[in-house]
Specification:
Length: 274
């Protein structure tokens, strides 16, 4: 998605990442991981308005985007619809500009109505499973439906504290999972650490902070996470209907469509990373 979530989220922080996580016992962090897996295993339909902020270390600049996300989870598949409606620059100037993104059937789809253009990037081949939320590896990192054992294999987990980031300063009654990628994992190449923030009661995700090795940071605030039970009503939501209508319109009006399949010898975990 045009170097947005795929290039992952970022914000300024004053303390080194290792100082952010207080000392915790293995039983404490294991308990949180097990509770998250148990609670998230029942999630099927999830949505939230969100605020995304990316801070660029080299330029000393940042950009904020306002939008909404809707996620459908089944035992064998994950579908994502993500829409950004507004962009705000570092000066506070806001611009109304809609950008639509979707993950479906192994493809990440970017829809740009103003340019009458669609880009489809393949992340997995037919029959191959790919979790788009897989932390540090999938095209869309989100702390939902993660397996505790998989998290332990790829990260050194500990109980964290709420990062001192602009998007998170109003958060209260939350639990924080601080993750440091283990050497040799895909996440270790680009990520210094990841902080996952959850509501204390429902354990729904409310925030993500990714610290990149180049000094950049990405933060996402899920402002009002909700679970849904009525699939028909969920699929009739605003952003789901809008992206479906745009894809139909693109076919009818002959928009430019760029297709980027996986290279012949590339597995779903190896590429592509726009």
């Amino acid at each position: 998605m045009t170097n947005l979530f795929i290039s992952t989220l970022v914000t300024l922080i004053m303390l080194p990442c290792l100082q952010d996580a207080p000392r915790t016992s293995p039983s404490e962090v294991d308990g949180l991981l097990e509770r998250l897996e148990a609670r998230h295993g029942a999630i099927r339909l999830f949505s939230s308005p969100l605020t995304y902020r990316k801070d660029y270390d080299l330029e000393g600049d940042f950009e904020t985007r306002i939008g909404e996300i809707a996620i459908t989870i089944t035992p064998s598949d994950r579908d994502v619809v993500l829409v950004f409606d507004r962009i705000i620059d570092a000066s506070g100037h806001g611009t109304a500009k809609s950008e639509y993104h979707a993950f479906e059937d192994g493809w990440w789809v970017e829809v740009a109505p103003e340019r009458r253009r669609i880009v489809r990037r393949q992340y997995s081949r037919p029959g191959q499973e790919l979790d788009p939320f897989k932390l540090g590896e999938g095209p869309f990192p989100l702390p939902i439906a993660q397996k505790a054992d998989a998290v332990r294999r790829r990260f050194e987990p500990s109980i964290g504290v709420v990062p001192d980031e602009p998007l998170f300063r109003s958060l209260e009654d939350v639990e924080v999972l601080h993750l440091i990628p283990r050497p040799g994992t895909p996440a270790h190449e680009d990520h210094e650490s990841i902080d996952l923030i959850f509501e204390k009661t429902r354990l729904l995700p409310v925030g993500v902070l990714v610290r990149h090795r180049n000094g950049d940071r990405t933060s996402v605030w899920l402002r009002s996470p909700e679970l849904h039970s009525d699939r028909n009503a969920f699929m009739d939501g605003r952003i789901q209907k809008e992206i479906s209508a745009l894809q139909t319109r693109a076919d009818d009006e002959g928009w430019e469509i760029e297709v980027k399949p996986l290279p012949e010898n590339t597995s779903e975990m190896e590429g592509p990373r726009p």
